[in-house]
Design a protein that fits this description.
- With 515 residues, the protein is mainly beta.
- It folds into three domains: 71 residues, Immunoglobulins (Immunoglobulin-like), CATH 2.60.40; 215 residues, 3 Solenoid (Pectate Lyase C-like); 182 residues, no CATH class.
- The protein is built from three helices and 47 strands.
- It has a 23-stranded parallel sheet that branches.
- The longest helix is centred in the first third of the chain and has 10 residues.
- The two termini are 35 Å apart.
Length: 515
Amino acid sequence: MLKLLFSSATSACFELKDDVPYYAPEKFTIYLDKKPLRECETNVFSLFGLTPDREYALRVAGETLDEGLYFSTKAETCALDVRAFGAVGDCKHDDTAAIQTAISSLPAGGRLYFPEGRYVSRPLLLKSHITLEFAEGATLLGATERESYPILPGSIVEQGGRETYFGGFEGNTMPMYLSLLTAQYAEDITIVGPGTVDGNAQNSDWWTGFKEFPASRPRLMFFNRCKDVMIHGVHACNSPSWQLHPYYSEHVGVYDVLVSAPKDSPNTDACDPESCDGVEIIGCRFTVGDDCIAIKSGKIELGTKLNKPADHHTIRNCLMQYGHGAVTLGSEIGAGVRNLNVSKCVFIGTDRGLRIKSRRGRGKNCYINNIVFENIRMDGVLTPIAINMWYNCCDPDRESEYVWSREKLPIDDRTPHMGRFRFRDITCTNAEVAACYIDGLPEAPIVEVRLENFHVSFTPDARPGFPIMENFAKERCRLGLYLDNVQHIRIRNVTVDGAEGEKLIAAHYDEIDQD
C-alpha cells in the first residue's frame, strides 16, 4: 500500500495505494526511523531535509493503516550554499549574478542550496546533472522589469540549413522572453522544495497589455528538449504565463507540487507538457487562472514538421481547483495525444473537468486516442466532460466558415481525428451547465466514447453557461448527456439527476449500447 515515487539527495515523495481520490481514507502519522514527524491526510506526501546517500525506515500508521518500507536517498558530489557566491536573499539586492555563477560553477551531481530568504533574480539558465533545493522559507522571486528578460529566438537556421529550436508559445515556434528558470537541451535536472519559485507577475505588467509585447511572455519554468526533469515539493506561483512548461522533453516528473495564481490572471496554466513523452504529474494541487493541466503537441505546422505526439502521460492523486479546465487536451495538439491515464483526482470549481479543444485545421497528425479517466470526484464543475471539435479561439481563422460549417467537409491533411475515450467510476456533484457535452466532426466522427459508473447531479440554482467554446455557441443549463458525431456510444450505470429535458441526446452515431 505504500510506494516510493521519487527520491533526491535530500527529499523523498511517497504514495498510498488505495481507492480514494487524493485524500487518504483516514488521517495517519508519518514515522521516520521510528520517530513521529507529523500527521497527514493525503495519499501523496513528502519528506525534506534528509541526509544524502542514506537508508531510512518509513512507517505510516492510523486507526486501520500500518505500512512501512525502507528507502534510500541519492548520493551527490557536493552541496553548495548560494550565499557562498554572494547571494543575499534580502528581497532588495539583485542576486542574479551570484545565482547564475553558482549554477555555472556547480559540478555534475551537485546541489545548490537556497536557505531561507527572498532572492530577487532575473532569468537563470540551468544545465545538466544539477539539483536546486529551496528550503522552507526560501523564495526565488522574479524581477519585475520586462527589460530584464532577454528574448529567445523561436528557432535559428544553421549555415547547413538545419533548424535548431529554442522557444515557442501556444503551438508555434516563436520568440519568447526567457523564463525565470530555463533549460535547453539538458538532462538530469532536479528542482526540490519545500520553498517557492515566484514569478512575481502580480507586481509587473506581464498580465496587462501582453498582446502588444514583441515576444511571447516567459514561463516560470521552461524545459526545452530536456530529459529526466524532476520537480518535487516546490510552490510555483504567479508566472507571467504558463507556470511549468516542459517542451519536447522526455521523462518528466512533477510530484507533490503546489501551483497557484489568481483566478483572473491570464494564461497562467499550472502545467503544460507539450510534445513530451513520459510525463508523471502525481500528488499535486493546482489553483490558477486558466487550465490546471493542458497537454499540447503544437499547431499544424509543428505537428506536420516534427510530428511529436504527447504520449504516455499519467496524472494521479491531484487536486485541481478553479481553473478553466482541470485536465485539458489542446487546443494546440497538431501531433495528437495518446495513452493518457487520469485517475484518483478531485476537481473543485473548475469550468470543466476533462476539456478537449480541437478544430478543423489542426491536421491529420492530430489523433487523440486511448484516453482514460477513472475514479474521479468533481464538485462545482460546470461541465464535467467537454470534447469540442469546433474550438474557435487563438487563431486568425477562428471565425471562418471552414471552422464553423456543420456540413460534412472533405477529409484532407487539415482534418483532425479522435479515437477511443473511456470514463468510469466518476461522481460529479453540483454541476450547472451540462453533464457531458461531446461534439465531433461530421466528416471525422469520434470513434468511441464509453461512460461507465458515471454519476452527475446538478445544483438546483444552476446558472446557464457555454459548455464549449465555438462559433454561434448556445447557453445551456442542466443539460444531460449530449453526444453528436460519435460512432460508438457505450453507456453503463450512468445517472443524471436534476437535468432539464432528456437525459440523453445523441445524434449522428452508428451505435448506442446502453443498459
